[in-house]
Design goal:
The chain is built from nine helices and ten strands. The strands form two sheets. An eight-stranded parallel β-barrel has the order 3-4-5-6-7-8-9-10, surrounded by six helices. Strands 1-2 form a two-stranded antiparallel sheet. With 264 residues, it is an alpha/beta fold. β6, α4 and β7 form a beta-alpha-beta unit. Bound molecules: phosphoenolpyruvate and manganese (II) ion. Phosphoenolpyruvate (PEP) binds next to loops.
Length: 264
């Protein structure tokens, strides 16, 4: 079902007037984690003012260590839904377990499957039973074939609204957090009809590389971007402040992107 051989036309996912996978670019911006109502409200205001269409923010955070901040949970979902509604933005948030799929789908417009859960088959199967769009992140050591098979689980369950997200893979390089695989963008679009979104934030782990890799992703044909932005990155509650854009950088990036591709 994920293969272009059996589905020649691009899949276009329509969510409240925003079309993902068509000729226009979608940009999802926001913090790594939803922290407080004030934080997410202010960031939502800035995301909207910059012209992006979707507010990102994690309420359930998959942290490498068990003692790190694990997210604000259902309270975070509520905070983000309110900010999204107030500022007229779609919302995307990560879901980590099958049990939380329904509550996350109640509050968010798009559900994100993180890189660490790309092969959480119970989660994928559960996501196949609903119609809420899913942004499936590539596992950091997954081949294209494994990635498309993970998407296949969701599609096979009956949910056709899947987008693929390249977020960088693990290589020998240490300077960058991950190696953003730009070739994955056109390769996945050749193999599959599903929209492809690029995540230059996790794909590089370095703020100064986000702008060039965003532009490179669009040049490579990405249907959209998911970018971390924070009003106070140095004090963000996850370690991802180092890769988060400042609001003025995000706004400038949006101006530049509009020259490369029309926005939704
Ligand atoms: C995130 O988007 O904040 C995140 C945890 O992403 P990934 O699963 O790609 O590491
Ligand atoms: Mn993050």
């Amino acid at each position: 079902l994920a293969s272009r051989d059996f589905h020649p036309d691009n899949t276009v996912i329509k969510i409240k007037g925003v079309e993902i996978g068509g000729d226009e670019l979608v940009v999802m911006g926001g913090p790594c984690a939803v922290e407080t109502p004030e934080q997410i409200d202010e960031i939502a205001r800035l995301v909207k003012a910059s012209g992006a269409q979707v507010l990102r923010g994690g309420a359930f955070k998959p942290r490498t260590g068990p003692y790190s901040f694990q997210g604000t949970g259902v309270e975070g979902l509520v905070m983000m839904a309110e900010a999204g509604k107030k500022h007229g933005l779609l919302t995307i948030t990560e879901v980590m377990t099958p049990e939380y799929v329904d509550v996350c789908a109640e509050y968010a417009d798009i559900l994100q499957v993180g890189t660490r859960n790309m092969q959480n088959f119970d989660l994928l199967r559960k996501l196949g039973t609903i119609q809420t769009p899913v942004l499936l992140k590539r596992g950091f050591s997954a081949t294209y074939d494994e990635f498309l098979n993970a998407a296949e689980y969701i599609l096979a369950g009956g949910n056709p609204n899947v987008m693929l997200c390249e977020r960088g893979i693990r290589t020998f390089e240490q300077y960058t957090r991950n190696t953003l695989d730009l070739a994955a963008i056109p390769a996945l679009q050749t193999l599959s009809h599903l929209p492809v979104i690029s995540d230059p934030s996790h794909g590089t782990g370095r703020r100064e590389l986000v702008e060039p890799m965003s532009k490179a992703s669009v040049a490579a044909g990405a249907n959209g971007l998911i970018v971390e932005m924070h009003t106070d990155p140095d004090n963000s509650m996850t370690g991802d402040g180092v890769q988060s854009l400042f609001p003025d950088q995000f706004a400038r990036l949006m101006v530049d992107l509009e020259k490369l591709a029309p926005l939704c």
